[in-house]
């Protein structure tokens, strides 16, 4: 029984997962999804390096696992910042696009309107409109 407990205890020590490392991995994944490699490549590279160091440290003893937690927190912070900078860059690009569209619409509104198309010419009677119309023929009214 003691041998079984010793094996179980030793196995659980190896299988211990540092939750901060998992959180850092998720943060790096979110930064990847936000295209941080395009908008914040240095921060994302730093986050990946920190994550790799944390993963390596998490395989060690107790003090290494403590260090893994610290490294993972730093990696997660770098990844979160990379994601935020990426989202900011995308938002700025969208804002500039909208401003350009608004400027174009304003320019269109400031231009004088084009004259309406010419109507086809028609021949009108020579009678002026101010003359009275001829009286209707008098009838017996029945």
From TrEMBL:
<protein>
    <submittedName>
        <fullName>DUF4398 domain-containing protein</fullName>
    </submittedName>
</protein>
<feature type="region of interest" description="Disordered">
    <location>
        <begin position="101"/>
        <end position="142"/>
    </location>
</feature>
<dbReference type="Pfam" id="PF14346">
    <property type="entry name" value="DUF4398"/>
</dbReference>
<feature type="domain" description="DUF4398">
    <location>
        <begin position="19"/>
        <end position="97"/>
    </location>
</feature>
<dbReference type="InterPro" id="IPR025511">
    <property type="entry name" value="DUF4398"/>
</dbReference>
<feature type="compositionally biased region" description="Low complexity">
    <location>
        <begin position="120"/>
        <end position="133"/>
    </location>
</feature>
<feature type="region of interest" description="Disordered">
    <location>
        <begin position="49"/>
        <end position="69"/>
    </location>
</feature>
């Amino acid at each position: 029984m003691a041998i079984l407990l010793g094996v179980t205890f030793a196995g659980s020590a190896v299988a211990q997962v540092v939750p901060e490392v998992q959180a850092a991995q998720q943060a790096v994944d979110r930064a990847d999804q936000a295209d941080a490699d395009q908008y914040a490549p240095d921060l994302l590279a730093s986050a990946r390096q920190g994550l790799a160091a944390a993963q390596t440290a998490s395989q060690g003893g107790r003090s290494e696992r403590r260090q893994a937690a610290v490294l993972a927190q730093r990696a997660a912070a770098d990844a979160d910042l990379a994601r935020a900078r990426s989202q900011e860059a995308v938002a700025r690009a969208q804002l500039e696009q909208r401003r350009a569209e608004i400027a174009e619409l304003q320019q269109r509104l400031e231009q004088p309107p084009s004259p309406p198309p010419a109507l086809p010419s028609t021949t009108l009677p020579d009678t002026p409109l101010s003359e009275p119309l001829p009286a209707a023929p008098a009838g017996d009214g029945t």
